[in-house]
UniProtKB/TrEMBL annotation:
Residue span, Zinc finger CGNR domain: 110-149
Protein name: ABATE domain-containing protein
Protein origin, superkingdom: Bacteria
Gene3D superfamilies per UniProt: Jann2411-like domain
Pfam family, one: zf-CGNR
Species per Swiss-Prot/TrEMBL record: Microbacterium tenebrionis
Listed InterPro entries: ABATE (IPR010852), ABATE_dom_sf (IPR023286), Znf_CGNR (IPR021005)
């Protein structure tokens, strides 16, 4: 198994046994659930209840409560304090961020990148934005230009 060790909630090291194959499978399941939900929101503009429940299930696996803590500048800031296995805390934090994305005004901005073979999503902050990054935009424009240049040419004869 690959060495996958996220930092512990308190910033210390995690026991190697903490991230086992079961934890990796749960991370993959959450990743797949978020990807499916993102695709659905980006294309249909809404989320099915079954996907919402999957994210809710991951999100509520650990009890969490807001706490006031001082940062390095001595300012009081709000932080969530969660208890439980570190992997469950990480999964719950990721799922919680996803529920925020899929429930707010940003859900209406969520789009799938139209770049060639790009699996990513992005928030459309400008009406004419169609790509996740400038690199994807460049690849898409180059592919369109190549397609226009080769559209009128006869196909090359097959070898043999
Ligand atoms: Zn892209």
């Amino acid at each position: 198994m690959r060495d996958v060790r996220p930092p512990a909630a308190d910033g210390g090291e995690v026991d190697e046994d903490t991230v086992n194959d079961g934890a990796v499978a749960r991370f993959h399941a959450l990743r797949d659930a978020i990807r499916t939900a993102a695709a659905q929101v980006a294309s249909a503009g809404r989320l099915d209840a079954v996907h919402a429940e999957t994210l809710n299930d991951f999100s509520r696996r650990v009890p969490a409560a807001p706490q006031l803590v001082q940062n390095d500048a001595g300012e009081w800031v709000r932080r969530m304090h969660a208890t439980g296995p570190s992997t469950d805390i990480a999964l719950a934090a990721i799922a919680s961020d996803a529920t925020e994305l899929f429930s707010g005004v940003r859900a209406a901005q969520l789009r799938a990148c139209t770049g060639p073979n790009c699996p990513l999503f992005f928030l459309q902050d400008r009406p004419r934005r169609h790509w996740c990054s400038p690199g994807c935009g460049t690849r898409a424009r180059a592919a369109a230009a190549y397609s226009r240049r080769t559209a009128g040419r006869r196909p090359t004869p097959a070898a043999g």
